[in-house]
Amino acid sequence: xSGINAEYGDSNWIPQLSPxxxxxxxxxxxxxxxxxxxxxxxxxxxxxxxxxxxxMKGIEYILLHVDEPSDLMIIRKQERHSPSHVVPxxxxxxxxxxxxxxxxxxxxxxxRLAGTLFHLQEALDKTLKMSRYDPNKxxxxxxxxxxxxxxxxxxxxxxxxxxxxxxxxLIDILTKKYQHFMLRTGPVVTEQQNLKQESKDEPQR
Length: 205
What we know:
Helices cover about 35% and strands about 25% of the residues. It contains 6 helices and 7 strands. It has helices spanning about 20-25, 40-45, 105-130, 150-155, 160-175, 190-200; strands at about 5-10, 60-65, 70-80, 85-95, 100, 130-135, 140. It has a 5-stranded antiparallel sheet with strand order 1-5-4-3-2. Strands 6-7 form a two-stranded antiparallel ribbon. Strand 4 and strand 5 (about 100) form a beta hairpin. The termini are far apart. The mean pLDDT is about 80.
């Protein structure tokens, strides 16, 4: 299960990696997913023809699928009992030179159930907030929106006449106190326009 979140890659192989050598790439002793007691390792050490794997019993790795447009290759770990009987144990996918372990059915179901339980718990918590009890009615459901808090009421209430008058007085005081900082109203006259006006005002010679 710890291999689900692990990955392996060898940058020296990536430029030349292809469906023809991906199984040899996977069967490196440095690959954490590779079982060094498998039949592939025995055949490699004894320099046997790969076809001899069909007549051996035990753990082996095969190239299961190749999808060249997406550069995806799948390696299967399986246990061989006879030339025609194998039991799949795990799948590994090689994508752009990096090897990952595909999740098994247990992890897929566990992930789906965890997501489902989260949403069910969230729905149950919201539903319980709508449960009410009255001595006369007993237990009942109230689907009306919850009453706003005091802070929400204060934010939503319009300001009073006193507040508006106070703000107006404050603005008037600040305006009189800092009126020399206020910008002049009216059209903005550029330096070029000033020069043109001065040339017009000069007496003609």
